Amino acid sequence: MLSGDGVRCAQPYFPPQITFSTYENKAIYAIDELNQQAYRSYIINPTLTEYSFAMQHFPFAIPDSPESKYYVQLKLSYPSNSCNYGTYWKYGDYLSSAFPSHWNFNDSSFKIDNFVNFRYDMIHSNNNTGNEDYWYANETCRIDSGEYFPCQEIYFKKNTDIPLRSAQVVRRRWERIPQNWAYNCTDLSLGLLYNPQLLVILLNNTSSVQLWLNTPPHRINGNGTVIIEWHPSTASKCNDCVTWTPKQFSFNSITFQQTQTLHITRVKDGQDVRLIPIFSGGGFDIVDPEQSQISIY
Questions:
Q1: Among 189, 220, 244, which residue terminates a domain?
Q2: Rounded CA separation 95/86 (Å)
Q3: 235-252 confidence digits (pLDDT tens)
Q4: How many domains would you assign to the chain?
Q5: Same structural domain for residues 151 and 244?
Q6: Residue 161: which pLDDT band, with cuts at 50, 70 and 90?
Q7: 219: domain range?
């Protein structure tokens, strides 16, 4: 059944606002379809817990940023306090989710929906099931032993919307949100793109690399520009074998997809060179530069 807001609110679906545990209490979920908020805590091991939050209009977001307008999923690890997040919009690139996959329409669209997603028509059992209501799929699926069972099943406390347990056949093959998450957590969609990313340059020759961003830089304290400079990485076997121009690039929310050109000249024979960017501003300061290196042979 759907409510006037399009929210499923009766068996065999979960209530639109519910808190429950799974995986022998390792995971605790709090789902609020009405206010479009979701939370999960998951005990990875006795000393590490992951906290995940998903919502629209995320608190403490940078004003007038994409994170303040679109759905965001934030992950925190405790006690390490490492964190990252992804924004669901046209430049989003966030593939790892702590929540049901049917909430993700694609990398740019997200909606907090009912926790369960039935792929089959569900039938309410008329058999005597004691203090439970039992629903089962109208199709059966084969398990490894060769037996057939309803493809999906769910049990509720009798005449209530309290889910007790569910099963399906599958094939083998809020207060913890830190106020500074928008500034201190890595935005997984931020990145520097190259063409090409690997070069072979002979002595006294120059090659060019096209550079651009895959998503706009963040606007922080009124500044929405990222400055990019370069230096050899610690993995380079020769630190003075190449020179490059220009020494500095800048991108903003208007120019982020406009390609700019880096010219690299080999001035000394030597071994491999790895150039990595030095980011400043636009939320890129905490992006791992090693993931954006240029290899020169």
A1: 189
A2: 9
A3: 888 889 999 999 999 999
A4: 2
A5: no
A6: confident
A7: 190-296
